[in-house]
Amino acid sequence: MAKDVLTGIRFLSGNYACVEGGIAAGCRFYAGYPITPSNEIAERMSVRMPQVGGIYIQMEDELASMAALVGASWAGGRSMSATSGPGFSLMQENIGLAAMMEAPCVIVDVMRGSPSTGLPTAVGQADVMQARWGSHGDYEIIALSPSSPQETFDFIIKAFNLAERWRVPAIVLMDEVVGHMWERVIIPPKEEIELVFRKKPSKPKEEFLPFKADKDLVPEMAIAGEGYRFHVTGLTHNIKGYPDTTEKAQAPLVRRLVDKIRKNAEKIIDIEEYYTEDAKVVLVSYGISYRVCQYALSKARSNGLKVGIVKLNTVWPFPERRIQELAKQIKAFVVVEINLGQIAFEVERAAHGECETTLVPHAGGYIHNPEDIYEAVKKIL
Q1: Lesser CB count within 10 Å: N end or C end of the chain?
Q2: Rounded distance between C-alpha atoms, residue 281 and residue 59, angstroms
Q3: CB of 214 within 8 A of CB of 239?
Q4: Helix (H) or strand (E) run with residue 94 in it
């Protein structure tokens, strides 16, 4: 049997780093359906899962793949899938099921040009709102966005830890360029990788209530086969897990599903800031667009323009509080993303009119020209 964690310095694509990050995070169940540009993830998983004693299964479609993740999660597994835009759309119904059943799992969306089948082999970043609002009803998820193969490896581990800690689906919004980019990836020894696991039942089996939450609003989680009695359903349910389709049950359940993320958002949110202390314009970006912004930022600073940048490692929950703070001290935000305006609207909303919000849009197919970003900053200043 091969080593479960391939430690040391490796030369990996983002898609391959995604696989190795999942294995390092303890993922031992992968269910998916082929779709460009995420295919390399499924292909490598089909080899690596048997090597580490895990299970790889190609389902009949993405809807079934997502259902399999939920089942594997309740069976005690750390489960994962990967897809792209059209498949991500098909997963949405059962992402909502995972949110209602509080089944921790990880979904990787290697974003491509869209809508519909769009640009199957070219980059896009237009799935960020779908990640947040794709399924019906009120619920919360966590979404991360890596900008390199190294970050992909790291963020997959982080996504599993967040999913297990808060019992939610965690989404990794990779994009085609990062997925197909080959770079050095440093994989630490297995014993240095910190893993977080779901809370196990602390009460005797006869006293266990599967959806009775602790102070952090997250219930303990029993798994099938351990001898605990529990019932899970996508219907509105009581703390025993049994269907209770009444307003009396709906209000506290849905409020808790939302609040366990919203009230703990500052513990989850991860952003990086550079040069914001003296900035008059702040760039906001994520994924491959952040790396393009680095050139524009460097050129602007070298020409005496006071420009900073905020890198969104977690896209959801959105760092609303920090954007509000920065809005009071700067002239404008410049949002750079490969779509025609998604996170830009969140920035504008959070700024509350304290400063201008400018979008440098791109419909997809290739990355921004960094000169366009520089010119947008120069025009404002």
Answers
A1: N
A2: 47
A3: no
A4: helix 85-101
pLDDT at 211 over 70: yes
Look at the pTM and tell me if it is higher than 0.90: yes
Quickly name the fold that domain 8-192 has: Rossmann fold (3.40.50)
Amino acid at 190: K
Q: Return the amino acid letter for 202.
A: S
Structure tokens at 38: 């995420």
Convert the pLDDT of each residue in 309-347 to its tens digit.
999 999 999 999 999 999 999 999 999 999 999 999 999
Q: Does the domain made of 271-380 have the CATH classification 3.40.50.920?
A: yes
Q: Which helix (H) or strand (E) holds 216?
A: none
Q: 133, 111, 130: which is closest to 122 by C-alpha?
A: 111
Q: Assign 124 to helix, strand or coil.
A: coil
- How many Å apart are CA 334 and CA 337, to the nearest integer? 10
Q: Are 362 and 338 in contact (CB under 8 A)?
A: yes
Mean pLDDT of the chain: 97
95 phi and psi angles, rounded to 5 deg:
-65, -40
